[in-house]
Structures
1.
Amino acid sequence: MRILFLADVFGSPGRRAVEARLPAVRAELGVDFCVVNGENAADGAGLTPKLADKLLAAGADVITLGNHVWRRKELAPYLAGSARVIRPANLGREAPGSGLAFAPAAGGGEVAVANLLGSLFLAPAVSPFEIVDDLVERARQRTPAVVVDFHAEATSEKVALARWLDGRVTAVIGTHTHVQTADARVLPGGTAAITDAGMTGPHDSVIGVEAELAIRRMRTGMPVQFRPAEGEVRLEGVVVDCGADGSAPACEALRIQA
């Protein structure tokens, strides 16, 4: 089985790139299953039900989220009824939606996708390390193919979680920083990992935002209304091969000009 993970989709440039390119990319790479992080699809912060449906229609099998999950209030009831759009599992116990999804792969079999939020510099209800073992056990009761989207700020926390889960999941894929790291690898126990898969969106920017606006806020400390940039749009992510036992024989970073 070949699994494609597309990193944080940012604003309308990122969404348009997914809609235009994902079907062909799936065919060209022989992808059986696709996970898309939709954390920033709505103008660079959050996701709406309409945009979630568009990403699913474009070829995403499961959509994951992150720290902006509640930026669009209309998403809460949508999450409560969705089996394929998930939010971090370590948010409040009463929060709508799920942090774990199961969906069929094109070539047969099923893939479990788990979503977690990092503790360092972010604010989940509980540490990801407190719940991840139970989450993975639930996933492995149904399928050996398990992908974890770890939406976190700190490199150390992402590397630590990947090492903790090595040999128990297919892949631990870091998201959130929007800058693709050069460490796509397979760990000794057979788990694929990358510290950050990057960003699907405008790279002639400050992590997706028009550079002048981001710089103005940094220089002045004053509130600035951010807008997604438009230039140098590309799809970034990672391609993971998954064996019958759920281990990953190969993991490669992906970068495609839109």
2.
Amino acid sequence: MKNDYRNWFLLFGIIAIILMLCTFDMDYAELRENLLIAGRWFPAIVGIWLFIYLLNSLSWYYIIHDGKEKRPVSFWRIYKLTISGFALNYATPMGLMGGEPYRIMELTPYLGASRATSSVILYVMMHIFTHVCFWFSSIFLYLLLYPVSWEMGIMLGIIGATSLFAIYFFMKGYKNGLALRTLQMLTHLPFVKKWATSFVEKKKETLQRIDLQIAQLHQQRKRTFYTSFSLEFLSRIVGCLEIYFILNILTDNVSFADCILIMAFSSLFSNLFFFSPMQSGAREGGLALAVSGLAIPSAFGVYTGLLTRIRELIWITIGVCLMKIGNGSPITITKQENETNKRTHF
């Protein structure tokens, strides 16, 4: 990526951090008090994300390389782009509007535009797909651990039906591709209709090539698909340790299974408010509702949300700083190599 573009992404990240600090609904005395309460648990809360991002990076790395010996992008570069990409996404209203373009532009000199775009789209699909599967599987965990009232039964039924619909949608996407179909849907929407129509006409061949690569992941590269899925799903489970660490600051009466349920239901609630930067307010509300549903004081959920917010600010800052570190000189992809990428999948 050109330094000018990278600097624009960096500037965006810095502005987002400043805005978040200015709108953080806690004074510094209260913040210090909460961190003192967390004590030795707080480094573990922040540090566990080193391993979570490692699993995310491995999932994406498998998609990019698919077991091939020639590896134009190192794992540590993927790790760095993973952290920076998520940092931009956390700071962006509606999510997936900053991190994904950044990743594509950083990978293009190494993989070519088509392959870089398809690898990022495939990873985003995998990331969201495992999130939906995590929500769906949590229903059965709840049924195993707790009695179900008719109100909760209705709620679980709605979550299950919605999750199954989303799983069906993603499986169709893996079978037929999503890039061209999504852009064609935009051609029927006001405000973006003219732009989308023009883009589809100019880039139809490229979009078809990306869709072919998406379809190949599930149809022809099942081992890569399921390895990537397993790593990404495992990262969801490991992420529940954050909730476990925080709640253990406040009480000993919480199990790891409870933390899985809290993470699943709170993330489902907060994702309903995807348009909010860092899901501001929705995260705390979702956690409060989730813990109260498991007979844990709702104040614990608010405290968990606040510590999670601080951890996110730390990792957003780290991700933004990494954008200017270790970029190096990209591998030059010749015109002949670009043509080869167009004719083959990864």
3.
Amino acid sequence: MNKQRVAVIGCGLWGRNIVRNFYNLEVLDTVCDLDEENLKKVVSQYENVKTTNDFNSIISNPNITAVAVVTPSHTHFKFVKMALEAGKNVYVEKPISTSAKEAQTLKEIAEAKGLILMVGHLLLYHPAVNRLKMLIDDGELGDIVYAQSDRLNVNYFKNDRSVMWDLAPHDVSMMSYVIGQEPQQVISAIGCSSERNEIMDITHLGIQFENGVIGHITDSWITPMKHVRLLVRGTKKTAILDDTLQENKLQVFENNRAGSTTDIKIDYLEIEPLKLECQHFIACCESGREARSDGENGFNVVKILEEAEKIMLSENKLKSLDERNFALSRLKQ
């Protein structure tokens, strides 16, 4: 079994966590970033790790077997495509791309070349999320009828084109994973900007899954108090996973006894999800098996978000036209 050598592209706020985990797994070879200060930090913290600001030197290096792309989402397609075409296995932060057509292209390249393409849908590797999935698969909640995910926080950088592209990949992938159903269509999508510009920092999505399950997703960049909660309602019981809690993140309630927890012991190992995710990527590279969050998974998420964005932009356009027509009618009075 050949030992993997990984290069990380992008060493910003989140990229540093990726670098740390691959280094601890003893597979980190090189870190690539345009910011020299970021590279200096890598050199000072990680012994024998090489640094560069030239991506081409990464993909042309035969010793590097895998590339982790942790750059702004609008650059993902370009970097991932180049790495795959160079024969590298690829881990890419969510979303895989901001276009379903591009996501499909990346998936097809990876499949044609027999390479691993894994998307950073982190919550698919969260121990509490996987414990919840086990409960659902075992029928503890009954038939699933509804799911709701709220991911609210403050983000001062707003470097994606909307909060939906930043946070909703987590919600859609997690919801689909735990209930074991693929998203079928967007039934509602609303977004707005608190700063009244083109970047939506609050979004609300309604999604229909297979077998008629409805999911609602709310994401925010402007909520002062962090709120990260998943609710899954079954015909027998309802589960709530609150990721802001230090302990007892996952609770299950009887539907007919409001406010009383069941006697189910919901235990799981507290392991950093990112560590598990990075371990999974390396294991897939070494074994050749498909990743849990593979290219198909990435494509399905982007397809839904792209559909939702079209609805949001259409609604906002109609709203702007209505406001303009109202103003014109007032002027004519």
4.
Amino acid sequence: MQSQISSIDPVTVELHVEVPWDRFNKGVENEYGKLQKSARVKGFRQGKAPRNVIVQLFSKSVRDEVTSSLVNESVVEAVQKHELPVVSTPVLKDAPKVVDGTGMTFTVKVEVRPKVETLDTGLELVRRTKPVTDADVDADIERMRQTHAVVEPVESPRPAKAGDLLTVDYTVTVDGVAKPDMAGTDRPVELGNGQLLPEIETGLTGAELGQTKSITVARGGDEANKDLAGKVVVFEMTVKEMKERKLPAVDDELAKDIGDYQSLAELKDKTRARLEESAKSQSDRALRDAAIEKLVEKNAIPVPPSLLDQQLRAMLQEFMQLMQMMGQKAQLNQAMVEDMKPRAESKVRAALLLGELSRKASISVTADEVEAKLKEMAEKSGKHIAKLRVEYTGEKREQLETQLLEDKLIKHLLDGSKITDGPWEDPNKAAEQKAEKAENA
């Protein structure tokens, strides 16, 4: 068998293959031999039909079968011979051509991993760690304090305010027509948590126990409920019960109630330590992301279309699953797909470049490293190591190995990078600024 390759573009090649007649003919003869032993032909006992009858009846199917088999075998041999880093299934350019006495020829088109002659890993990165202030510690303790609040009826009559929990009865009219099916009794509402319509929030704020408030809500023309679109809805709401949260004092007793703390000072110290550890973890993740982003920026390589399609499909599927988990109906359109493409392309480039780094730096994951990770996971989860070994087989083990390899590669990147400490920047604000800059470019 002979084969030649020709490049179409940096990620696509054509592979021209010539299979000698002897090999093709031998395949045909072998197929005829099998058929003579197994074929059921009318007028003959099984396996007793003459060869000329077998050839007459099955010539086309035999040649088609041998052609398909030899195409697959020859492509594998040619890929191995030329050491092609194939990333997609080869596609026949035209139907294979078979000439009796000469042989078979065909051409396939296949996508390959782009060549990376030089991999620039000299990265300059800025580590930004969010400082933990006294205000952060106080806010976190306040959050814990809120969870230990006690809900009690308001002791002395007063107007309702933000934070109060009310129980109300209400009736509804739409454009002056009563709607009994929309009425409600003993409905709990909380003021100030942003869950109520602004008009109802305003109408109930200042209400007193036993008071009935008439609250008008004008619905817009784009109202999702078409029965209410553009109409005036009036709620007659009676406050039947008013409760408030009684917050505990911020003292040593609160610390003991919250957890295994002996004093408020200890609670503050451990809260600060936890917030600082969280800030460090966030900083580490951001630094990893920045390293990959810089690697992609410094090494412009083309992306094989098939890999881009695979990544895009994976991202769309993940988006659909997320929407389902949130109980929302996913509405995909071409604009959303186009919006995802740049991120998908960046992910594919990053994977290709990390793969190249793995080859150039001879970085891999050993069985011992996988075993060590499984033991670590067993200790943290409380599962028996043998159970985890069974759980992490096949595809799941491959995913674990991929994650461990990525961790090693990024550590290698960071170890060779120039990292300086910089002031904290809110990642959400930074992302908004980056998007705004891209739009104005």
